[in-house]
Every structure is written in C-alpha cells, then in structure tokens.
Amino acid sequence: MRRARCGSEYPGHPGGGRTRIDRLAAGTIGAVTRSNALGEYLRARRELVDPADVGLRVAGVRRTPGLRREEVATLAGISADYYLRLEQGRDRNPSPQVLEALARVFGLDATATRYLLSLSAAHPTAARPARREAVPAGIRQLLDVLALPAFVENRMFEVLAANRLASALSPGIRPGSNRLRSMFLDEDERDLYPDWEHAIGGMVASFRTSIGGDVDDPRIALLVGELSLASEPFRRLWARHDVKALAGAPTRMRHPEVGMLELRREKLAIGDSSGQLLVIYHAEPGSDSARSLALLGSLAATDEALAAEAEVREPRRRTP
How does DSSP classify residue 68? Predict the structure, then answer.
C-alpha cells in the first residue's frame, strides 16, 4: 500500500508548514467562516436553486446560477432590500419566521432548516485553549470488547479512541487523527472508498452540521483553512454549505486484504460528552462482508500477537 502523504507535501499538515496556514487561513476561508456565516449560507443556497423548481420562467440565459435576490425576497414575502441586508451581513438577527420562509424557498429539509436557524443565533467565539477530551471509561471498555470496528470521534471528527479492528479497517481511524483530514489528504484512505466522491460530500455536509454555528472556533478555522489550501474538492464542497444529519448510513469499502465490504455505519451520541459519537461498522449477518470482517479481525489479532512477541524478544536481544 502507498504511504499517506504528510509533512511539507500539504501546507499545514502535521509536521509541515503550519505557519503558512496561520497566515493564509483568514484570507482563504474568511468569507465562509468568520465574517458572515448567515449571509454566505443564504447566498450559497440561493445559487443552487433552479428557478423552474420554484415555478419561475426564465427568458434567455442567465449569467449567474440560481435565483436572483429579488426573486428570493418575493417568494419569501420580504422586501428585496431586507434580503440584501441579510446576505451582506448588515442584519444578522432575522426572525425565525423569516428564516423558515427562506428555508421553504430554498427547499431545505429539517436538518438544513435547523442549521439555518442556528446561524442567526450564532455569536463570535472567543479564543480558547484546546483542552484534552476524555472518553468515558465505560465507552473505552466497550470498544475493547466489541467484535466490530468501533471508535469515538468528537464534533471536529477527531478520533479520540479506537479498537484494534477499526484501525485495521482504515488507516485513518487511529487516536489523534482527524477523519476529515484523512479522507481528503491520505491516499490510503481515499483508496478504500470506491464511492469516494459521494463519501466526501456527505462527510463535509455532516461536518457542517456537527460544528453548527460555531464556525469561529479557532481550531475549526485552522482545519478548514488547511483543507481549503490543500484540496480543491474540499474547497468546492465547503463553498456549497450543504448540511446533513449526523446519522448512520450504508458504506462500501475496498479493503486491500479482505476485498470489498458492504457495511453499515452507525453513529450513536455519548451522553454528557460534549458531542462525542460512538461510531460502529457492521455487516449483514451471514453475508460475504460479515465473513470478510471476521477474517479482518483474525488478521488484526495475529498482527497484534506478532507485534507483542517482537516487543518481548527485542529487550532480550539487547541484554548483554
């Protein structure tokens, strides 16, 4: 398997040019994070709406995609000047009724509507030092006894804990790694997903849902800045402002040792944990994927036993 790209190949990646991210993050992502989150979201959704879908007839070819501001305002029952102020960030506290009307114009589902409402209530986040997140002891014990790939991630998709089978399933599922960074910057991780383009779209949309209106968090800004500089697909998806519920979903993975896996991924909220999720992969009982997952578990156990034996032997070789 190819080694994951790291270091200076990606500015801002751990071990690489982190100071460059500090200098450029604001210029690269300021328009979609710190300055005007509500306005940017409204504009992004407006540009994705086909006028025909809301009953408008368009004569000729438009120079810009989506709806015009005046059309959105008319459909939502507000003045064009007021809608312009919302997009420009000159009015950041519209009523829930106005936002719900805009959600209907844009065809937003329940998850996206809640996200839109959260942006109007968002306030700038004061800089705060990063703190170490602790995974509850009972959840760590559960990871050890589960015979399925399982791990814990926080709201930034950082892996806080993982069992042996999860790390064997994916090189990016290891404590200290970030799932979003791995999906976009790690070739080994990308090779696992035959539907990679679909997978990253859902992941970015879920990430927006996870962070909600807290887009001013310095750690989030740094991560988004890093990925914006390093990955064109991420820049494109981030600019869409899609949101998606943090829920389980089917996933396909092409593992280099056991072949194709048709799995189900479940995401379970951990109580009193500031947004931590327990993520578990499982296959349909009796299926080829279930058998392949069991084989992967056996291979991982063998590798662990061999590594432990090597550690025992190594000190003996060094003994005079």
Answer: -
